[in-house]
Amino acid sequence: MALPLVPYHIKRLARMTDFHGYLLPLSFSSILEEAKAVREAAGLFDISHMGHFLVKGPGARQAINRLITSDLEAVPLGKSLYGLLPNDSGGTVDDLILASSGEEDVHIIVNAGNREEDFAWIRSHLPPSLALLDLSIGQIALALQGPASQRIVSLLSRGFETMGRREVRFSIDSSERIWVSRTGYTGEDGWEFFGPAEAILPIYRTLSEKGPDLGLVQAGLGARDLLRLEMGYPLYGQELTPEKTAFDAGLDFAVNLRKASFLGKEQMLEKMEDPERERLTGFVLTERGIPRTHCPVIDPSTGRQVGEVTSGGHSPRVGGGFGLAYTDPSFFKDFLKGKEAGIEIHGKIHRARFSSRPFVPGGLTKK
Amino acid sequence: MSSERRYTPTHEWIQSLGDPSLMRIGITDFAQKEITDVVFVELPKIGKKVPQGAEAAIIESVKAAFSIYAPMGGEVVAVNSAIESNPALVNSDPYGAGWIFELRVDDPAQWNSLLDEKGYQALLVSGTGGGH
């Protein structure tokens, strides 16, 4: 599917790639250079493939709150919230960012690959009195990320630089049904913009033209994936699946068990009691190699497979190969205590040790 | 080196070092762009015998791992240790400082099975290249 900014990326000679049926920039110059720029200055990502829904009507906040793991009603209007959408067996339909623009209006940002499924799931669980709108068709969405973002966003002269962390605004001039938030997926300060092409294109133009003077580079999906993995953030389809719960993925912070019950809660708690459930862990290789998705995790003392890599990569900031893997609970326990793991890459075992997440300090986690 | 460079459909290049049985091998500019940032290269052992078309090295980039196939059969007589400490040379100078290994070839006639410059460029235009 062709997204509105594709001609601009092609003009910049971006290396394009297919992502869930969308043609998107993989990188403009070098994945490593783009990732470095985001950690040190700023990067601009085209995220137009992501979904933006609006739920409208009386009781919208309450109705959505019954479907998600975190507590939307406890969050003030205009503030964003991370949460998971469990399925009826306690696994995960998607992970989401939500915010209410009013008592009767809830905006939801969803993953590209799940957009249609999320829409169908949410629609089927909402009362008919509520409207669910998919605002994504024809939209442009951008992520401006990096420590220089605040200076760069002030180039837009719209006062966005005064927004607080996780604050969301829902209009630009006369354009409504917009999402502008001080959020991101890289661990750095930054802003995300969603809206109709005519509202966001001027923002893209201003940032692309004037941003480079303040260190802004265009960045692609390669850098985006590396940056999120450095922070240990999950990616739906890899760490999160219809079988895995927020607890399996170590996302306990995104589950509020004290709020009014939500769909899938009982099943999630049941799954949590399963003594065999696999647990997500971070690891770093202690020798040269790059782990990739589906590489087996081996217990060196038995030679038995005890897990599988869900995401892997190489980062100069981490100091080599690193990644996330689901492992058997008994091995997980030993691994946390310092036991070595073997990661099988091209038929060879590479030694790895446990690493806490984030793997590197992002701008937002630095003390 | 001024001698002719030949290519494979899997985007390796091969060039004689003067002695027609001694060949240097690397990946093409097209391949390095496709592979993106090379992070390291698993070089073959010196003395290893590789048949034509067999996997001789592995290039790991930020994006994925790529096999490098021997354009001609022979024995590995040298490897470029400079790319072990500076793998980015494969991206910045794929035909020069970013070479990968050298072979003492078994059968010089295999040269005739390789693509010349024109043939390789035609392959890139038609987009039928495989491998990487």
Structural overview:
The complex is a heterodimer of chains A (367) and B (132). Chain A starts with 5 loop residues before the first helix and ends in a 12-residue tail after the last strand. Chain A is α+β, with helices and mostly antiparallel strands and 367 residues long. In chain A, α2 (31-40) crosses α7. Chain A is globular and about 65 Å long. In chain A, 21% of the residues lie in helices and 31% in strands. The model of chain A has no long low-confidence stretch (mean pLDDT 96). Chain B has 132 residues and is of the alpha+beta class. Chain B has a single domain (5-111), classed as OB fold (Dihydrolipoamide Acetyltransferase, E2P), CATH 2.40.50.100. Chain B has helices at residues 29-35, 82-85, 89-92, 117-126; strands at residues 5-7, 12-16, 22-27, 38-42, 49-50, 55-61, 65-69, 74-79, 101-105. In chain B, β6 and β7 (65-69) form a beta hairpin. Chain B is globular, with a radius of gyration of 13 Å. Classes of the chains: A alpha+beta (367), B alpha+beta (132). At the A-B interface, α2 of A face β4 of B.
